[in-house]
């Protein structure tokens, strides 16, 4: 399973757009990136999902991020927080040279729309639909600095553009969509924000002495096996009264992640066992013991990818 390569972080991931959302996603649509002269100047030929032949005039410039739809898909809308699989070609807008391609001949881990980890790329796919082919233009000064990985800020003046042609291939739910279930006895309380982000309240009594797994939402999707890579969002909180989360897919810009369910591939092992046998659409509460500590995991199972 490939993740988005470091070059993508270097070439296009630090410009901000605003968000969209609909069923199973985060916020309600507010505004989407508009097309402009630079994105409108991009042409791309070839079948959807195959590496396109991209043509752009030399010397493309832009003041901000622009998104044009080259091919309109009829699939679900991509909302903020939606994990999406894409294929992409990235070019230098100054001379049209291809800098990077991915996702055409290999399976790439999904990115999360609106997650800051993916910067402009993650923001550019918001409001798109599955089946869209997008042309994205962004200023090079808004590209991450390859020397230190820190995002730069656009100058607001017309400058040389970086160009991305993106095929939006697949979208997963942004949150677990299963039917709510009764919580287990003496378990932490879990509440959900409108975006689906969970909050956990640890009770005053001691944690159970062994691992426990409880179903918070019952989905109807594929049953996950050890052969699958699971697309998940997760919250981790120590079993300590008043403790803050030590990890969250909903904060810090991380977004969804892909985890292998094969033995020995996911640490701690108790988390892997909590996922195997559950269905896509489930939300799972797992109490896991690891190296003398007890952590509470709330995990949304959003999809699966074959090995």
Describe this protein with a few key phrases.
single chain; 307 residues; mainly beta; Chitinase A, domain 3; 4 helices; 18 strands
List the topology elements.
Layout: H1 6-12, H2 37-40, E1 43-45, E2 53-55, E3 61-62, E4 66-71, E5 83-92, E6 98-102, E7 111-112, H3 119-124, E8 133-139, E9 159-171, E10 179-180, E11 189-192, E12 198-201, E13 212-218, E14 228-238, E15 247-248, E16 257-260, H4 269-275, E17 283-290, E18 293-306
Antiparallel strand pairs: 1-2, 3-9, 4-8, 5-6, 5-7, 5-9, 8-9, 10-13, 11-12, 13-17, 14-15, 14-16, 14-18, 17-18
Give your account of this protein's structure.
It contains 4 helices and 18 strands. The chain is elongated and about 65 Å long. The protein starts with 5 loop residues before the first helix and ends with a strand. β14 (228-238) and β15 (247-248) form a beta hairpin. Mean pLDDT is 86; it is low at 1-23, 25-29 and 144-153. With 307 residues, it is mainly beta. The strands form 4 sheets. Strands 3, 4, 5, 6, 7, 8 and 9 form a 7-stranded antiparallel beta sheet that branches. The chain has 2 domains: 6-171, Roll (Chitinase A, domain 3); 179-306, Chitinase A, domain 3 (Roll), CATH 3.10.50. 8% of the residues lie in helices and 35% in strands.
Provide a short characterization of the protein structure.
This protein has 307 residues and is mainly beta.
Structural class: mainly beta
Strand proportion, as a percent range, falls in 25-35%
CATH class call of the largest domain: Alpha Beta
Number of domain modules: 2
Helix and strand string, N-terminal first?
HHEEEEEEEHEEEEEEEEEHEE
Shape: elongated
Radius of gyration: 21 Å
CATH topology of the largest domain: Chitinase A, domain 3
- Which regions have little confidence, pLDDT < 50, spanning 5+ residues? 1-23, 25-29, 144-153
What separation lies between the terminal Cα atoms? 7 Å
Mean pLDDT: 86
- Largest sheet, described in full? 7 strands, antiparallel
Kindly report the oligomeric state of this protein: single chain
Number of E-state strands: 18
Assign the CATH architecture of the largest domain.
Answer: Roll
Helix fraction, binned, reads under 10%
Count of DSSP-assigned helices:
4
């Amino acid at each position: 399973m490939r993740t988005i390569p470091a070059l993508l972080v270097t070439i296009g991931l630090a410009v901000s757009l605003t968000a969209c959302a609909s069923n199973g996603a985060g916020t309600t649509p507010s505004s989407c990136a508009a097309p402009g002269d630079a994105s409108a100047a991009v042409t791309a030929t070839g079948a959807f999902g195959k590496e396109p032949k991209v043509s752009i005039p030399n010397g493309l410039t832009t003041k901000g991020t622009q998104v044009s739809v080259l091919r309109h898909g009829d699939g679900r809308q991509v909302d903020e927080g939606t994990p999406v699989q894409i294929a992409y070609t990235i070019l230098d807008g100054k001379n049209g040279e291809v800098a990077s391609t991915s996702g055409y001949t290999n399976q790439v881990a999904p990115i999360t729309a609106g997650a800051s980890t993916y910067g402009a790329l993650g923001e550019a796919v918001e409001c798109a639909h599955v089946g869209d082919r997008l042309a994205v233009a962004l200023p090079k000064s808004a590209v991450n600095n390859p020397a230190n990985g820190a995002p730069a800020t656009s100058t607001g003046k017309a400058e040389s553009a970086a160009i991305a042609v993106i095929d939006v291939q697949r979208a997963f739910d942004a949150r677990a969509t299963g039917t709510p279930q009764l919580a287990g006895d003496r378990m932490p309380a879990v509440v959900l924000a409108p975006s689906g982000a969970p909050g956990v309240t640890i009770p005053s009594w001691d944690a159970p002495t062994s691992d426990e797994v409880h179903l918070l939402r019952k989905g109807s999707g594929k049953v996950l096996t050890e052969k699958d890579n699971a697309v998940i969002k997760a919250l981790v909180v120590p079993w300590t009264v008043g403790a803050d989360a030590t990890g969250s897919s909903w904060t810090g810009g991380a977004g969804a992640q892909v985890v292998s369910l094969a033995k020995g591939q996911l640490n701690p092992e108790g988390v892997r066992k909590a996922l195997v046998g559950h269905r896509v659409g489930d939300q799972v509460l797992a109490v896991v013991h690891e190296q003398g500590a007890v952590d509470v995991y709330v995990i949304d199972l959003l999809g699966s990818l074959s090995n």
